[in-house]
């Protein structure tokens, strides 16, 4: 696989920043998906310049539209829980030539008026993934996990709730 195949996917995961840890396979399955009514709605990031996220429930998961200026990016997500921690398995929607729709794990904390969001992609977690999962480094910071999704899920179960596992937390306010 050539790094150029990932450019559109890495760029497409630009909601509040780009994830530096992607899995080729889904992390969560529909069978383990849960619903969180607090996710549904339109959200704007604190301190952000007119970016909006619109989240709608669709079947077992969610449809996410990230709007920034005139640009709209579409994603789908499944919500899953590990203990008390809630996560999203997020992947871009749509077919873009020369791209692979990778899966990014996102830690979320939901409330009636706020949504906190952080990619599970810290340097510490990328090191853990690189040591325990089949993966390939793309550039200086991105890690593409080629291991099966259930192996990625096991890593999330083991360390995903650890504060060292995620990057910056973005807080979104409900519109």
Specify the biggest β-sheet: 8 strands, antiparallel, barrel
The share of residues in helices is 10-25%
Spans of at least 5 consecutive residues whose pLDDT stays below 50 are 1-17
The number of domains is 1
List the total number of helices.
3
Order of strands across the widest beta sheet? 2-3-4-5-6-7-8-11
H/E series: HEEEEEEEEHEEHE
Alpha carbon gap, first and last residue: 41 Å
Mean pLDDT: 87
Number of strands: 11
- Rg on CA atoms, Å: 15 Å
Secondary-structure class: alpha+beta
Strand content: 35-45%
Shape: globular
Explain what this protein looks like in three dimensions:
The chain is α+β, with helices and mostly antiparallel strands. It has one domain (3-161, 168-174). It is built from 3 helices and 11 strands. The strands form 2 sheets. The protein has an 8-stranded antiparallel beta barrel with strand order 2-3-4-5-6-7-8-11. A hairpin with a 3-residue loop joins strand 9 (135-138) and strand 10. The protein is globular. The N and C termini lie far apart (41 Å).
């Amino acid at each position: 696989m050539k790094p150029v195949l990932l450019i559109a996917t890495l760029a497409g995961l630009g909601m509040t920043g780009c994830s530096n840890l992607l899995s080729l396979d889904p992390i969560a399955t529909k069978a383990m998906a849960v619903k969180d009514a607090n996710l549904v709605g339109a959200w704007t990031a604190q301190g952000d310049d007119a970016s909006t996220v619109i989240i709608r429930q669709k079947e077992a998961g969610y449809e996410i539209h990230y709007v920034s200026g005139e640009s709209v990016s579409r994603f789908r997500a499944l919500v899953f829980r590990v203990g008390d921690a809630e996560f999203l398995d997020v992947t871009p929607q749509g077919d873009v030539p020369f791209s692979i729709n990778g899966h990014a794990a996102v830690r979320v904390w939901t409330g009636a008026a706020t949504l906190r969001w952080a990619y599970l992609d810290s340097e510490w977690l990328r090191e853990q993934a690189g040591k325990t999962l089949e993966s390939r480094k793309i550039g200086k910071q991105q890690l593409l996990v080629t291991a099966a999704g259930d192996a990625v899920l096991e890593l999330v179960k083991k360390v995903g709730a650890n504060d060292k596992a995620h990057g910056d937390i973005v807080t979104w306010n409900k519109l």
